[in-house]
Fold this protein.
Amino acid sequence: MTDNTCSETLAHWIHSLQLNDISDAARIATEDTVTDTVGLTIAALDTDYGEAVQKAFHTPGECTVWGLSGKIDMAGAAIINGTCGHGEDFDNTFEGCPVHSGVVIVPAVFAAAEAMQLSRRDVAKGLVVGIEVANRLGVISGKGIHTAGFHPTAILGTMGAAAGVAAAMGQTVQQIRDTLGVAGSMAAGIIEYLADGSWTKRMHAGWAAQSGIRAAQMGAAGFRGPGTVFEGVHGLYAAFAPSISPDFTPLTEGLGSHWESARVAFKPYACGTMTQPFIDCAVRLKEKGISPEDIAEITCEAGEGTVHRLWEPLALKQSPPTSYAAKFSSPYTIAAGLIHGGAGLAEFTDEAVRDPRALALAAKVTYVIDPDNEYPKNYTGHIRAKLKDGTVVEERQGQLRGGTKDPMTREQILEKARANLIFAGRAPEAAILLRDFAADLFTSEESFDAGLLAAITR
Amino acid sequence: MQKVVNEPTVSEKFAGFLTGLTPDALPGAVNSTITRNLIDAMGLCVAARKADYIAQVLASCDSTGPCTVIGHTKRLDAAGAALVNGVAIHGEDFDDTLEGAPIRVGAMVIPAVLAAAERFDLDGRQTHLGIAAGLEAVCRLNHVAAGHMHRAGFHPVSVIGTLGAAAGVSVALGLNRDQTAAAFGIAASFSSGIIEYLTDGAWTKRLHPGWAAQSGFKAALIAREGFFGPRTVFEGEHNFFKTFAPTATPDYSHLTDGLGDDWYMTRIVFKPYACGTMIHPYIDCARRLAADGIEADQIESIVCDTGEGLVHRLWEPLAAKHRPTSGYAAKFSMPYCMAVGFFDDDAGLAQFDDARVSDPRVLGLAEKITYRIDPENEYPRNYTGDLRVTLNSGEIRSYHQPHMRGGQYEPLTDAEIMAKFRANIEFGGMHSSQGDALCDFVTGLAQAPNLKTLSAVSTCS
């Protein structure tokens, strides 16, 4: 095996992988990813960007846009599901390299499975392989892809989606190798959306999903892709992460024994990552029975590196101009947590961010820089609330919840899906259906049927 | 975190020019370039119709629709037809190129616009305008950071081509300035294509123009619905040129100056031979050597003066170039192309058949051909050919071709374009009378009420 290229090593592993060989942790993370991703997609169908992609792609076909009853073609379904799933930046991510695997892999594998009439077990294998490959590629790249101006979810997502669909299709080793080689020529996505908040970031997940399927179809048909797509002189990393000297052992070693797919992180709140531990503290204040009107002032110890994005200019952060800006305001997100006991999609509507009660509380929230704060090595939260009766209450959160150090429980992920479905005007019980649907993929011998997802309509 | 840009951005200005085009604004040279490019592209599609890679791409497309795959009966959705036709045009490396800043042009634009026209039932006028806009967009965009995308490991055909296809489809569909600018912003997020195919001759190079065509088509559709693409796609902090050509200092004057006066697309050139462009002048020399009555066994050695920039792609590793392993690899071998040109007095598709490249006589002559780097060689400004032939008798003969035929110094005549078209039609097994019908369709396209006859004239019976 030593002479194999990286893609050949991966191809051999993917080809030989049996469902029984997948660790429980990887299986559970994958099931939860399905529940989380589908709930988020349905929640974003009625947004402006969600409607734009639905209008652009409406060719009838065999595939489901989750939460809608009409069927459209494979590429269109993958694009719409992926774009909506990633639209609010509330979907799963990965510590070390922010590759959002769920919103690429799940739309790709589901659409392929519907169009190609694959079995549920094929789908389960495809999902695990896709997430595993995307995350392993993320371990190699670190910040390298962002540094070059490219979007890791877009670039690595394409490779993961291709691997996942190839696995689900039961491709031969040669076909998988070619699929990955072809996918390298389809990987795309620049980060110029940062300049004006344009919507291309959202679209990247869906585009990567459809590209991954198309690459797998070409690999299956025998179209030859470069064998050295990852490590070649002009390979994926040379092109998209030129600042790093990639070490490919995280891609090729420990396959089948070490599972990066088990390490996906879920976001408890629908906002910027670094504000989340502060919201945990705010939620605990609410659980102690403290109401916003009891509070005289709140002071938070914060890491210096987070100030310019989440705290300053303070007046603006205390009264965010848009719902999107509110996602990156510590005062607003803390106020939302204390008032609502959470910060889900409902707390980031245009109406919610204008709520006088929330804004009145946000105006009482300030910060002091803690020179000993661990940021960026660790994300922590702190609140010191001085009540009107003179009592001082303090809360601390030692790390980001949802990550590997403090994962969300399965019940919490289910609760998140439930809240997202309610936000979308769907029945909350559909969250249970989603969870059971995901678990069923790993156990049932039946063919894949997304009818249940299409039935989650208003 | 977000800068508000009130002035029109580069993409908005460029889109303003493209969306303002009318048939009256197109000079004769532009119209004739479009027609010549269409004829050449159609012939190449027919020629590639039986190729293994076309069968595979076709097999991978499972969405049927109203759009024509040139030379095939199967009809596909617009994305599928754009993909297959784009692969077919470029598949044998026999399609157009751009002098001054080499890139393929028609292979990305023409399939995208034709597919859009069939899908949305556009007329010939819109189709023609769309092709004009797309070709000009590719040519101008490729000058902004010429050469630097390859250096970063990206293939301009796919990276630039995605934007060109988006521009062509946007104009054909009648999108307004801001929608078309958004299409550029969206297309830049679809731009892909790494050059790792150089390592093992993988077929992804062939895939790139077709993928660009279908991606650009979809970018235009998304933009039409009001999807918000980055306005500063060409000049922002993480712009298109910075990411795909990080070593370049972009020259934006190519997107702003002389619009409507200086038509870059009129510098598109058509290839007389089905192989790497820079090899062409050397083949001309080898054919002249044969025409002088020299036999292969009279030749002791041939030494070619060559530009240093050509060596790594077309001369080295020399042993591999002397014995190419496939017809496709042979297209990028200087020794093989000269040798086969010497014997066959041509270097068309038939000369790059997998069987032809194992002919011992051709390989025997190829083995005698080596190179010497000439520091004075004009490459990449001009492509020349220089042979110094030593005969067994000791006699030395020199041949020089001062430029590429087909290029600006000696464009292919309309008759030569037609001869190439007819040869390609025959190679693909299409009857010549049907080739004539296809040609008539193309020459009448700008005036056609719709493209409903395209499918009939381009399907082989």
Observations:
- The first strand of chain A starts at residue 60 and ends at 64.
- Chain A has a mean pLDDT of 96.
